[in-house]
Amino acid sequence: MKRIFSIILALIMILSLVGCSGGSQLTPEQIDKRIEAGEIGTIQGFYSVRNNEDGTGDFYVQFNSALETVFDFYSADGTLVEFYGDEVVYDKAGNVVPRSEIAYGQGLIIAFNGEAEDTDPPTIKAYKITLA
Predict the structure, then answer these.
(1) For residue 60, what are the contacts with CB-CB under 8 A and spacing of at least 6?
(2) Which helix (H) or strand (E) holds 10?
(3) What is the model's pTM?
(4) How far is it, in rounded angstroms, from Cα 70 to Cα 76?
(5) How far apart are alpha carbons 23 and 35 in whole angstroms?
(6) What is the mean pLDDT of residues 85-110?
(7) In the structure, what pLDDT confidence band is assigned to residue 74 with cuts at 50, 70 and 90?
(8) β-sheet bridge partners, residue 124
(9) How far is it, in rounded angstroms, from Cα 92 to Cα 77?
(10) pLDDT the model gives residue 122
């Protein structure tokens, strides 16, 4: 009986871990459906000057300073964005846009989990980023 209980408990733990890692498994279409259903929130940010022109390295965005009192992750120096899946930015038609073609200050719509890590700089995790 203890053995069966241990096996069932192990299976439940594995299923829980798989369920928690859902962000990286979602396709852009699935993310869009979850945004429309209100399951994933979005926020508008602006492409930061701290990003490398060739589209490599850390991905930073800036938020309007008016958001400082509303969101924990506002930083005048920019907010680091980590991706759950592929590190790509899409245009409104769903095509991948090379980051080297994104201009400083370009508006971005960031679909994310609504949480920020209290780090320096603040960090959010994005499911998807689309040009505004």
Answers:
(1) 48, 50, 51, 78, 79, 80, 81, 121
(2) helix 2-20
(3) 0.71
(4) 14
(5) 13
(6) 88
(7) low
(8) 81
(9) 27
(10) 84
Mean pLDDT of the region 42-65: 78
What is d(CA 11, CA 18) in angstroms, rounded to the nearest whole number?
11
From first CA to last CA, the distance across the chain in angstroms is 57
122 with 75: CB under 8 angstroms?
A: yes
Which residues, at least 6 apart from 67, have a Cβ–Cβ distance to it below 8 Å? 74
The SS3 call for residue 52 is coil
pLDDT of 22 > 50? The answer is no
Residue 116's nearest CA partner among 70, 66, 65, 50 is 70
From 24-38, 45-59, 87-101, 104-118, the region with the lowest mean pLDDT? 45-59
- What is residue 117's DSSP assignment? B
Q: In this predicted structure, what is the pLDDT of residue 56? A: 64
Domains of the chain: 25-131 (2.40.50)
**Helix then strand then coil, % of the chain, to nearest 5:** 30, 25, 40
CA pair distance 106, 61, nearest whole angstrom? 10
